[in-house]
Protein 1
Amino acid sequence: MPRSSELWSRARTLTAILALASLIFICVLFFFLGKWQWDRTQDILDAKRAASTAAVSITDIVQPMKSEDYGRTVTAMGAFSSPDQVRVGSRLSSQSAAGEWIVSSLVLDTGQSIAVVRGWVPEGAVFATPEQQVSIKGVLQPSESFYDFAGDQKGKIVVIDSQKLSELWNVELLDGFIVMQDQEPVTANVPEGVPPTISTGDVAFPLQNFFYAIQWWIFALFAVAVYVRWLVVGSKLRT
Amino acid sequence: MNKIPTALLAFRIMAWVTGVVLAVASVWALYGYVLLNYGTQGGKPLLYSILWVAHGWLYFAYLIAAVNLAFLLRFPIFRTLALLLAGTIPFASFYADFVMHRYVGSLPVKRAPTQ
């Protein structure tokens, strides 16, 4: 290591001052370039989140559904098919009370059908299906695959699986099912709403922008390191 | 102690690794933006993003190797900057590697790698 007085005298040469000025310029520039990429990261996340939480019509979701469709808020218009209703045993309410969920087939205006979890009812409670045309809002869920081994009992199902419900009701169903959160118009037969198992998962992280932000800042530090090393090597040369 | 051959080898490795990744990513970008939908939000595949991020980190290693070599060879500032920037221009690092080898080869024998 050169002595500090040598470093100091070298730092005061014209070249070193110009180098320092460039270094400061580079650091400021790189800091803001990094900040820009950082803000881009946040903006992209916000935009994607806003887009994924906006409700879409179930008919606008392309079949077969993709994993990123699950957890999305969807709207659907149609009428519940009254014979096609089934109870799911041993399900909790949003307050963790024991009971059952009611799953109905909603026949959409387009003629397609989808399974809808209308909500929770106490065990054995009688719940008729509303007759009129309804407009519902809910969260799209993938078919359940757990408890598959349990088997169905006493007219109740265990697993909400569109494939199995399709066989049970003998109708063609869209993939997955909707956990209903809102029904218009409100009828006498709306069971207590339940929280969806899967709510909107986080959107894809803008990896590229995030790492660019970090890299710009690291490059700024690297420039400082190079300047210091250059100063030290140069001083050694002079002595 | 002669550190130049090692530094030159490190630079050669980084110049080629960084250069290949940059060349692939650049050609991919050209193809993606011109013929595919990379200009739109979410149009890019994950691997494409990873490749660019990888170039960023590889370039950092390239910088270290290049600065090390430039110091050993006592390069002036602008030649050093040119060497550093070569890692950001597609295919330029291959040329930089060629130039550096030619330059080191032309140095007096005591600095050249011993056979």
Protein 2
Amino acid sequence: MVKILRVIFCIFIFSFNSFAQQVNARAYTDTTDYLIGDRISYKVEITFPENYIIVPPNFLDSISNVDVWEVKPPVKSSSGGMIISVYEYILSRFDSSDVIIPGYPIRYKKKELPDEQAAPLPAEFLTDSIYQTKVTNSVKFTVHTLRLLKQEDIKDIKEPILIPLDWWIVILFILLVFGILTLAGQIFIYYKYKKKREPSQEIIPKVQVLPHIKALKDLRALEEKHLWQDGEVKQYHSRITEIIRRYFEERYRMPALELSTSEVLNNLKQRSDTEVIRNVTSNFLNNADLVKFAKFNPMPSVNEEMMTQAKEIVKQTEFVPVEDRGGEYENV
Amino acid sequence: MDIAELNEKIKHESAFVDLLQNEIGKVIIGQKVMIERLLIGLLGNGHVLLEGVPGLAKTLAIKTLASAMKAKYQRIQFTPDLLPADLVGTMIYNQKDGNFFIRKGPIFANFILADEINRAPAKVQSALLEAMQERQVTIGEETFYLDEPFLVLATQNPIEQEGTYPLPEAQVDRFMLKVKITYPSREEELKIMRQNVNKTEGIVQPVITPQEIIKARGLVQEVYVDEKIEKYILDIVFATRNPKLFGLEKLVDLISYGASPRASINLALGAKAMAFIKRRGYVIPEDVRAICFDVLRHRMAVSYEAEAEEITSENIIEEILNKIEVP
């Protein structure tokens, strides 16, 4: 009996050991010392026999003390009837501390056993007797801040990193500029060609009427209206002074219409070519002011004299063009 | 009255203007524009605000004008602690008979020189400006009419603005003219220097009485203003309010607010006084243009844009005068 019990015990012990050696799960990181924000490569390496299948580890939701940046596809290899699957997770942490990633259970079973779970599910949902469990080891590493080396001198900031010139972009840019220039050139040539084909418009030279001719014409027109003869004496004096002031504006480029009598006379005084008309202009404008602003009712001879004076002012100072100034003058 | 007749009368009655100018000229060298504007204020029954840096004979000119007129003159130096009662007067308790009696203030004079008006607080300025407008003062329950002619000549210093109370726009509007005094020419300053160093200034004799001024004012009122001149005045004033209508689009953004109707009234009155001084019984556009700057410069305000570009109200008035056709 004792012998039978020993055999059963040995069978039990040996069978358990050989089973345990068949599936192995190991978790590790590339280093145990990380800087804040570093990429932490956390790997789970599962070694199992070819006639076994494993449920891929899925514990992302359980990790709480680190951020998961990336889950890489598993890397599988086989050797001596054993399959090695490596699952890599890129983690990061933005606080300095010691971090412990606890061990996670890896579920596995023999292939010939019924597959009661068609799709791989998280380990916690897998029930039962068919699946076995292997727990990975816990991994400990440290995340720290920059270490200040107080003994060392203060160092200057690093130079900007020069990005190497990408010749493809340069070539693309040159081609683009060349394309735009070619297009612009074609548009220019097209419009030039189109313009050439259009019948040329005849440029009509601007006819400029000489100020004295215009003033004399206006004076004649005023004379024909017989304003003062019809009792419109004030209107006549206003109009006649307006014609002469406008003549001064065009002839001497002075704002005579916006100037008072004395200001007009002062302006004329400053010009040497107006000496011959200064007195007559003074009489002419002052007499008109009396009629316009002082209710003065002049004799008919004064009204006639105003017209004579106005014509004299214009004729004495008429402008004779000595050279062509870009336009043609109309001699009315 | 016929204009020819009025012309003759004015030629005769305005003779005192030359006399007055001669008397003032004994003491004041140069500053002809200022003296002319003071006479316009006197004849146009309007008050004058003089602005200029210290030492340009503002006070002396007013004092001399008063001396040449045999009129009562009072100078009030405006200070921050001045009270309205210091100006118009107050009621004093008489312990002997147990009654109050009225002590009239310095405002009861023909000529008031309100020196540095912007140094007094608003309530004093207000009391003065009210008296200027109403030409009467009430002390206690009694109202007193001010003597005629009553002319306030206020001075204002454009520098040293710290601790001053600038006159509000509404109150500045009550001055008929705001005259800006400039420095004398080199020749004038030489004469001023010699006259003061050698003490050779003449003694001003009274050449006119206040009654004669009142009479002259009556004549100024009769000076003829033609419709064309009236239209010209209105064009100028309206151009300050709506420059776009007069082809002055560029001024639209430069004017904050235009001149009030007081501007039209005072332009007409000032032009009449100017015609009188020039011994004419009728106003010509030249009279209007001559006083335009002094009548309008304090009645319109330039915008922030204009201030930023250092454009003054004078620049705007000049633009308007250069644009509006003279009748």
